[in-house]
Write a structure and sequence with these properties.
The chain is an alpha/beta fold. The protein has one domain: Transcription Regulator spoIIAA (2-Layer Sandwich), CATH 3.30.750. It contains five helices and five strands, in the order E-E-H-E-H-H-E-H-E-H. Strands 1-2-3-4-5 form a five-stranded mixed β-sheet, with helices on both faces. A hairpin with a 4-residue loop joins strand 1 and strand 2. Helix 1 runs parallel beside helix 2. The chain is globular and about 40 Å long. InterPro entries: SpoIIAA-like (IPR021866), SpoIIAA-like_sf (IPR038396), STAS_dom_sf (IPR036513). Pfam families: SpoIIAA-like (PF11964). This is STAS/SEC14 domain-containing protein. It comes from Halomonas nitroreducens.
Length: 123
Amino acid sequence: MFHVERKGDDRLDITFGGKLDSEAMRAALDELIAQSEGIEHGRMLYRVEDFHLPTLGAIGIEMSRLPGLFRFIGRFDRAAVIAGQDWIRRASELEGWLIPGLTIKAFGPDEGEKAEAWLQEAP
């Protein structure tokens, strides 16, 4: 399951769960890029539910779309990741250290209000 919802001029809410194959990855990336059009200095709320590693085909699709993904990421300043699995929270924050201009902060599944408040803070 992958769902993207645009919330205003500068926000995307993304919910992901399960396993992505190549077709699902292609559709997810298309949706992310389309929904982010026109966003500048945006914020994302990313909810990860029941995560499974994507298939090799899905990873291949993601790698082939890296230029578009870099443009997508460049539209955002902040991302809050809500996940139940500790390793996903840690990996998300590590990713934030590796992507210039994007700050990522992870929260537990019961910290939705904290995630929302952090997204609203001035950078």
